[in-house]
């Protein structure tokens, strides 16, 4: 209970300082305003008239003092002609947009600004709380027997990231002009649902997602628990129903990842064109493009675990690493490569902002005329949706990190190859089975009795939802996030490459 008390203190202190710290320093605002981003200003009406050779409107003459707009013998007001501020200019206008640095007052008007700032700042605090909890539980081994409150923070982080993606995707359904986008979202979700059904049928000796082992462990532990309660039950739902539920979840997340993947692929390709001779930045961008593909391969046993922890090369007496070390390496790679993708965020955002000038350049190749308001809207809308693009960039990364942290802690893994759980040494039977009578409150009101009841309730939860169950759930979720990022980004790269050639 002492460890739980320390976790509560850390949680309360973090909550109390979150608001005070974010007022002075916000990582989300730093990315938008302090990372050197510049945006393009839309041309004014005066500039467009000057470039198009349209005469400027005459300024209104102010009435002289003592002069009334009414005549002496007029009873009605003199109606002044209403000036039409809309005019047309040639599309091939030689126009160069001016740039300006993004200031804090400029981002307040952006769409989804508060959602973007909250998600990025909250993810930073989640990492801080998780690191403090891991250090404390590593110093005090009894901490592994208590509830890890950092998992609640991670669960909320995953919920916030999914909610942000749902809010961004809903824009395509509320907009009457986004029929093509709605169709793409529905087609992508349906394709991911069918794809997940096929992947879930693959033998887990090749794709180690762990759902079969999780189902077996949950079925056995639930049956044992019900037997101790003198209840007759055939066990939980069938494996087919559970995999169908996972496939539905995969379809929903696939629909949410379609446009973020397309957007990220476009930003990375544009960032490669704008980075010039900066080889370090190019290396980061290339790593970001291939990292989801490499991470998704780590769950394919013949391609990853077989070579690292089973096969013996040459004159070696043992494999390169043990199974536990391979699991730890996979967790580290998921975290490190996600942080590397975060480092390239300013370059990708600047590549997105440069789309304003690219739109003007493509407009010069067209014939005809365009209204001033429509031209200004084409430029201003790029900066207006910057935070929407930011959510599409960060939300998939945050989901990958959140599921990785929950997979590590809830699955009993270790960061350095020393796991807290070995499935070969554990069985669903317990020496002291938990019954409902143990969970009922006793007459004793002392702190020791309350602690014993809490430990009994926690033991009953761990008896049913064991490490093996959480390894299957969060391991599959982690792999699906990596695979989905790779699939959507790959589709975006293929799409951009095809139209560039055309």
From TrEMBL:
One term under GO cellular component: membrane
Membrane topology, from the record: Multi-pass membrane protein
Entry keyword set: Glycoprotein, Membrane, Signal, Transmembrane, Transmembrane helix
UniProt-listed InterPro entries: Transmembrane_161A/B (IPR019395)
UniProt-annotated stretches for the region Disordered: 52-76
Localization, UniProt: Membrane
Membrane spanning residue stretches: 116-139, 151-172, 184-202, 240-259, 279-300, 331-353, 382-406, 469-495
Gene that encodes the chain: EOG090X04CK
Family of this protein: Belongs to the TMEM161 family.
Signal peptide: 1-24
Broad class of the protein's primary localization: membrane
Protein name (Swiss-Prot/TrEMBL): EOG090X04CK
């Amino acid at each position: 209970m002492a460890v739980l008390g320390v976790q509560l203190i850390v949680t309360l202190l973090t909550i109390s300082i979150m608001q005070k710290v974010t007022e002075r320093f916000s990582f989300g605002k730093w990315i938008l305003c302090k990372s050197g981003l510049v945006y393009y200003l839309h041309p004014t009406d005066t500039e467009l008239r000057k470039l198009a050779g349209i005469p400027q409107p005459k300024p209104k003459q102010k009435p002289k003092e003592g002069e009334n707009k009414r005549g002496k013998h007029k009873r009605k007001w003199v109606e002044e002609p209403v000036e039409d501020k809309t005019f047309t200019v040639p599309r091939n206008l030689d126009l160069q947009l001016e740039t300006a640095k993004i200031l804090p007052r400029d981002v307040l008007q952006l769409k989804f600004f508060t959602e973007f700032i909250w998600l990025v700042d909250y993810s930073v605090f989640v990492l801080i709380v998780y690191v403090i909890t891991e250090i404390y539980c590593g110093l005090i081994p009894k901490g592994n027997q208590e509830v890890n409150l950092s998992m609640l923070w991670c669960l909320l982080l995953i919920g916030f990231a999914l909610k942000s993606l749902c809010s961004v995707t809903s824009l395509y359904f509320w907009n009457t002009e986004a029929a093509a986008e709605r169709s793409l979202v529905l087609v992508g979700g349906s394709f991911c649902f069918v794809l997940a059904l096929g992947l879930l049928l693959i033998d887990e000796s090749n794709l180690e997602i762990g759902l079969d082992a999780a189902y077996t462990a949950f079925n056995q532990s639930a049956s044992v628990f019900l037997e101790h309660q003198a209840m007759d039950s055939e066990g939980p739902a069938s494996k087919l129903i559970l995999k169908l539920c996972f496939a539905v979840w995969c379809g929903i997340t696939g629909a949410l990842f379609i446009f973020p993947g397309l957007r990220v692929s476009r930003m990375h390709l544009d960032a490669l064109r704008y980075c010039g001779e900066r080889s370090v930045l190019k290396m980061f961008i290339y790593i970001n493009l291939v990292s989801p593909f490499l991470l998704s391969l780590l769950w394919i046993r013949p391609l990853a675990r077989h070579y690292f922890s089973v096969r013996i090369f040459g004159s070696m007496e043992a494999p390169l690493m043990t199974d536990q070390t391979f699991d730890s390496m996979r967790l580290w790679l998921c975290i490190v490569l996600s942080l590397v993708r975060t480092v390239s965020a300013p370059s990708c955002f600047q590549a997105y902002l440069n789309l304003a000038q690219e739109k003007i350049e493509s407009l010069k190749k067209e014939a005809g005329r365009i209204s001033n308001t429509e031209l200004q809207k084409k430029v201003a809308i790029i900066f207006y949706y910057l935070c929407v693009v930011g959510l599409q960039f960060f939300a998939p990364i945050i989901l990958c990190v959140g599921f990785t942290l929950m997979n590590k802690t809830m699955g009993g893994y270790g960061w350095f190859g020393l796991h807290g759980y070995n499935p070969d040494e554990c069985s669903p039977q317990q020496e002291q089975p938990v019954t409902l009578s143990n969970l009922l409150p006793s007459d004793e009101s002392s702190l020791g009795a309350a602690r014993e009841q809490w430990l009994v309730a926690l033991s009953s939860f761990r008896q049913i939802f064991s490490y093996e169950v959480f390894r299957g759930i969060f391991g599959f979720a982690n792999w699906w996030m990596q695979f989905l990022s790779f699939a959507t980004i790959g589709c975006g790269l293929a799409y951009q490459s095809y139209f560039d050639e055309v």
